[in-house]
Amino acid sequence: MLLADRGYDADWIRELAVKKGAWANIPPKSNRSDPICFSSYLYRARNQVERFFNRIKQCRRVATRYDRLAGNYLAFVQLASIRLRLAARYESTP
């Protein structure tokens, strides 16, 4: 599923998503003449993804991408994700 904001509401983006085997859940622009299927319930999940990227970019190494190799960068993104998950888990524990 492709979750994007109104700025990505274009027919060619929707067609590309279908070719890749995904469903584009993009809110339609106000000037769109033909109705488009859109789920506001599924669109709320986009907010969680945006907040995750915002929190993960607090790590300077992720935000500036010091690593030259994609594998090393992915490994650090995974480590930062684990760190965020553990911090969230232990903050909520009384």
TrEMBL record:
Q: Which InterPro entries match?
A: Tnp_DDE_dom
Give the Pfam families listed for this entry.
Answer: DDE_Tnp_1_2
Per its UniProt entry, which superkingdom is the organism in?
Bacteria
All copies of domain Transposase DDE, residue ranges: 2-82
- Please give the PANTHER family that the UniProt record associates with this protein: BLR1914 PROTEIN (PTHR30007:SF1), PHP DOMAIN PROTEIN (PTHR30007)
| Protein name as annotated | Transposase
Q: What is the lineage of its organism?
A: Bacteria, Pseudomonadati, Pseudomonadota, Alphaproteobacteria, Hyphomicrobiales
